[in-house]
TrEMBL record:
Annotated NCBIfam families: PRK12496.1-2
PANTHER family xref list: RNA-BINDING PROTEIN NOB1
Start and end residues of each Ribonuclease PIN domain: 11-95
Keyword tags: Hydrolase, Metal-binding, Nuclease
One of the record's GO molecular function terms: RNA endonuclease activity
Classification via InterPro entries: NOB1, Ribonuclease_PIN
Record's GO cellular component terms: preribosome, small subunit precursor
EC main group: hydrolase
Protein name: Endoribonuclease Nob1
Keyword Nuclease among UniProt keywords: yes
Length: 173
């Protein structure tokens, strides 16, 4: 009765455990080693350890190539500084499975992570919060004349009008 297998690869962020996401034995659940350090409160920690012991949850390392792919994507979107190492490894693990043709769903409440997943077209769900509805990107823009600059432009001053250049958040969808 209960042995209908869900072939989705669920990738769980720390927020999944803290938010009380129910890890089911009928699905494949993965996380990365660093998450165990982020799950600190006692109740979440007990659930975390139990699911590993029961073989409901597996700890995996993302491949080097998936990390490289991720770094390229987040540097293009200007998001590099927003992510911790565990965030990056979690995203890279999702890319890793996704590239192998697996059906992937990332469980996270982190908007920055969700944003990258949206760019990648990798499905996700949140535990506590509503998912984001917009995808955004950062663009270097002159405060004065509004000229847009590419990320490689290193000067902080606009070459046209001499005003300061700032990073503007732009919506993609
Ligand atoms: Zn300007």
């Amino acid at each position: 009765m209960d042995d209908i297998k869900d072939d989705t690869y669920y990738i769980l962020d720390a927020s999944a455990f803290i938010g009380g996401f129910e890890v089911k034995n009928s699905s494949l659940n993965f996380t990365i080693s660093e998450i165990s350090e982020e799950v600190k409160d006692l109740k979440s920690k007990i659930i975390f350890d139990q699911t590993i012991e029961d073989n409901y949850l597996f700890i995996e390392e993302p491949s080097k190539s998936s990390l490289d792919e991720l770094n390229k994507i987040i540097s293009n979107s200007g998001d590099t500084l927003r992510f911790s190492t565990p965030d990056k490894k979690l995203l890279a693990l999702a890319i890793c499975f996704f590239n192998k043709g697996k059906s992937v769903k990332v469980v996270t409440d982190d908007y920055s992570i969700q944003n990258v997943l949206k760019i990648l077209n990798i499905p996700y769900r949140s535990v506590l919060t509503e998912g984001i509805k917009e995808v955004y990107n950062w663009k270097k823009t002159c405060q004065g004349c509004r000229k847009a600059y590419s990320d490689i432009y290193e000067d902080e001053i606009c070459e046209i009008c001499g005003s300061k250049i700032f990073k503007k958040r732009i919506k993609l969808k």
